[in-house]
Recover the amino acids of this structure.
């Protein structure tokens, strides 16, 4: 077993007094890191908000109807369902127009669905290059098939009143990052009550 060596002070070295207050660096470093973290969070928040507003501006949508004779018959949001009379959230915008009016692709994309359902009637869903999706419902006829590549302004079908509808119109929905969005601003429509 070895004995512990004790350090003896060197008599040639002048001893300094011990610092009784902690170094200023001890306190400034955490404060600096806190301020740096706060700055990073602020920059991240503003860039997120900017990208959200920028994504709306980045959407250059082609108007989905080939006519000037249309009106917003039902906006995005809560409303009383005209076919069932129940209060519910309307997940798109209804654009009333004459039956047979050509319905056009809002952006270049690929047809992900072209089918029929009890509520939408004949509908087409497009997937666009930036991940945005658009849905066109209550069509009288479909002109496209799943997997088909379409250009902005290309006819997808014609407006009708298939499914749960009270008259001829186009039901238009917009999805960004997998979530439904209000298409009113993106289409440049006047604000309407649901």
């Amino acid at each position: 077993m070895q004995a512990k060596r004790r350090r003896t002070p060197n008599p040639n070295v002048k001893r300094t007094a011990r610092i009784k207050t902690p170094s200023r660096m001890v306190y400034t470093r955490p404060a600096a890191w806190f301020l740096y973290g706060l700055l990073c969070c602020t920059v991240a928040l503003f860039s997120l908000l900017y990208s959200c507003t920028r994504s709306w501006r980045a959407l250059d949508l082609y108007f989905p109807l080939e006519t000037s004779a249309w009106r917003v018959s039902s906006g995005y949001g809560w409303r009383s369902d005209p076919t069932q009379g129940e209060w519910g959230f309307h997940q798109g915008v209804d654009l009333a127009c004459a039956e047979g009016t050509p319905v056009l692709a809002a952006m270049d994309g690929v047809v992900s669905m072209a089918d029929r359902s009890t509520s939408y009637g004949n509908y087409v869903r497009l997937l666009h290059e930036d991940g945005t999706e658009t849905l066109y419902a209550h069509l009288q006829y479909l002109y496209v098939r799943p997997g088909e590549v379409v250009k902005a302004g290309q006819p997808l079908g014609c407006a009708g009143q298939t499914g749960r509808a009270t008259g001829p119109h186009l039901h238009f929905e917009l999805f960004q990052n997998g979530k439904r969005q209000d298409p009113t601003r993106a289409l440049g429509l006047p604000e309407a009550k649901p």
User: Anything to note?
Assistant: Confidence is low (pLDDT under 50) at residues 53-57. The CA atoms of residues 46 and 52 lie 10 Å apart. The longest helix spans residues 24-58.
